[in-house]
Design a protein that fits this description.
heterodimer; A: 405 residues; Beta-Lactamase; 5-stranded antiparallel sheet; 11 helices; 52% helix; disordered C terminus; B: 584 residues; alpha+beta; 2 domains; 23 helices; 65% helix
Amino acid sequence: MNGFALLAAGAPLLFAGGLAAGRLVARRAAEGGTDPGTPVERATFHTLHTASLAAPPLRAGLTEDAARKAVRRLRPLFGAAALGLTDRDRPLAWDGPGRHHEDTVSDRVRQVLDTGRAQSFAVGCPDPDCPVRWGAAVPLTVDRRVLGALVVLGARESAALLRAAGEVARWVSVQLELAELDRARTGLIEAEIRALRAQISPHFIYNSLAAIASFVRTDPERARELLLEFADFTRYSFRRHGEFTTLAEELRSVEQFLELVRARFGQRLRVTLQIAPEVLPVTVPFLCLQPLVENAVKHGLEESVERSRIGITALDEGALARIVIEDNGVGMEPDRLRRILRGEGSPSSGIGLRNVDERLRQVYGDDHGLVIETGVGAGMKITIRVPKYRPGVHSTPPRTASGSA
Amino acid sequence: MNQTYGIVAVSAAVVTTLVIGSAGLRISRTTSDFYVASRTVPPYLNAMAISGEYLSAASFLGIAGLVAAEGVDMLWFPVGYAAGYLVLLVFVAAPLRRSGAYTLPDFADARLESRAARRVASVLVVGVGWLYLLPQLQGAGLTLGLVTGAPRWLGGVLVAVVVTLAVAAGGMRSITFVQAFQYCLKLTALLVPAIFLVLAWHGDPRPADALDEPPTFRRHTQVTVETTVRIRIETPLRAVVTGAVDGQGYDGGRLLLDPGVHQVRAGTTLRFPPDSPVPGLESDDGRRTGASSWAAPLSGGKDDHPLYTTYGLIFATFLGTMGLPHVLVRFYTNPDGRAARRTTVIVLALVGGFYLLPPLYGLLGRIYAPDLLLTGTTDAAVLVLPERLVGGAGGDLLGALIAAGACAAFLSTASGLTLSVAGVLSQDVLPSLGVRHFRLATLLAVAVPVTVSVAAGNLPVANAVGLAFAVAASSFCPLLVLGIWWRGLTAPGAIAGLLTGGGSALVAVALTIAGPLTDGWAHTLLAWPAVWSVPLGFLTMILVSLATRHRIPAGTEAAMARLHLPERPAGQGAPTTRRGVTTS
């Protein structure tokens, strides 16, 4: 009985150990083939493998962390005493002995950075045991700009080593170029999102103002209220800072939106809310609900004459929050919807849906895109599942009135 | 105890919980009014929910049992359980909420930007969760056994099934309301009977001196021993025995027990006359339980080193509360750091108020239910008292109320724990299962502790909880405190500290439960590991972080700013104040 208890109490530890061991074994099995191959094959494999290991860190750009990891993996390629990477201002990483030659090396590196040409140089050292006698510095060039240098220190002068250093420097440069490309692509996506996100349809602005105008004489108080709602709504939607907000803020914006819609359609629109208070502080992408609600309103009201019902539900699901937006409107043909989400539809239709879907996938991964259930005449049900926590996702609180842009 | 009342009360508690859990949301929040729908959980409600989730079987049953059996030293348990929130309030509550983390692994991830640290924290969360679930299930077995006469293991299994179904079916959706209701139920279930008990105690023509050494039976008392025990008798004692004592069979025969140690076989029934002293229970290794000097602090109890034990208890409970997974997830419900802090203050009041009651039950249990000392089932003291003191239908009703409260205690804590353990299992430990396999994770989260609790038999409920606290204190307390208050923490440091502190405490716990050592300093050190494992965890974390100073996460400054800068006050975004002129 006691043994059982011991086993049970140790179970988490054993479990963790087993998990780690299993992974390790799996990785080993994946790496080591049974056939060793010819020496040339092995050398080729070894070189390519080393290079592929060093590539991922460098794809983050020339940072200290990336340089440290890359240098550690690349040094075996040279068999040299020491390998270092610098950027334009300072040494980033150093693997191997010979740190006491830093002054000599940094002088040389400065020259390399200035001229953009590789240099080899002798290193004089009073210490007879020091393995460093000779060195080479090769520039890392991207788009004809010198970003940094690769430094190799060895025991003796060697043309092969110099050539290898040149090749590796070129390879590193390519990786850095790819990193810049990555950055540019991310920037492009961000710009795209920024361009897409605050697209309140001009029709909505026009319709709202027209609806408000119709109240100005009959019910000035209502008109004033609506104008203020309109002001608040536009300010929230046009805010420039912060990619994320809380669900509570997002719901407030939806409320203002619906208030304006009601001004136009009156009792034809019925909204039911079911919000678990636990999920109100959840961080969500900015303006991720309003386009979906707008879509529901459009399907429900503008394309049919009956009464329209819209349901907004937010539920707590442990580490997730599930948000559902339903309408009883005209629905949509699934194929057409699929085309819209793929970006193949006409640019005017459903751009809001696609935009929200893309942003959700970009932030939370492909598991968290929109889930849409619909059919012609069957209404539409859109489900979002948002994790309560995701690294790097933090809501930016809206600024106070005086500080807003 | 009247079984019909008991069964009705327990079923009512379960059904009400499930109904509020699944329908509460619908009733209270379906509206077309945005203002009503988007009200955040107010601090008092969240505080009630946290208290409801926190007050476990250990608090409801265990403390009274320990106080009855081992004396005033055990008052440190309620003190520590409540004071843990003070530490949480001062060091952790607001920054943790501002970090945006939902679980402890989330916090490790947010602060250290390391997948590995996240993974280690997840494994430890699961470990602490399982360790804490164990006594809940045992408490369930005890209560249901007493109420319905079912065998011990059945209660645990039953609760496990109810909790699994509720959690897996998503029946705990409006969990805040459920847990707040559970707190009210638990408080009522102890408070109302307590009033009647105190009145009965005062009405007693012979209000016995509670501090009698040793306690005496107040009337003809019949005791049935469930497991074979050894009892120590100081003065010659008369008893009517059915069963076997010292290897000799009796069938309703009178017996004069001489001073010394006697062995009573399982299933034996002893009848004692009034005013005879209660024999002390002798544990297998020759140490005495049922302390002779019950009312004096540090007077021995069952441990060899009472001062050390007390500090072990203080370290574990004061610092362990912040590492309990099911408590921390509830802080996410607060809209901001300020609300988190306010919530914690209210929790302190609610929990502190509650903890005034169990010691009273412990005291009364020693006077009016001394036979429990003989059978060793002192955890039942709370449940049997109304029957003993008030008696009749009134006693039965009060007993049923207490049973319902106990049921709420292990249901709420068990469901909260299951929810967080299953969440971590599905998210971090077994990510390959995918988000949709939450139900499978729930099953696993419950199955392991159920198996152990059926297999391991009887751990004292409050002690087992103490062990869970010790593990939480020596792993998560360093992580949270250093993570929030020290810029120099690195991922390798945190991992090393979690593994050394939490790992050593886990090993100590495992050895204690398995019990190869039963005596001396080694046993005491292992049974109360927090005194050495908490500093060990801190020290490892600090030293390894200093040694890996170049690995300080790049985002540390930003993370620190987020943790410590107060947010814009909540409520300022309300339409009424927001409206007006915008300067651009």
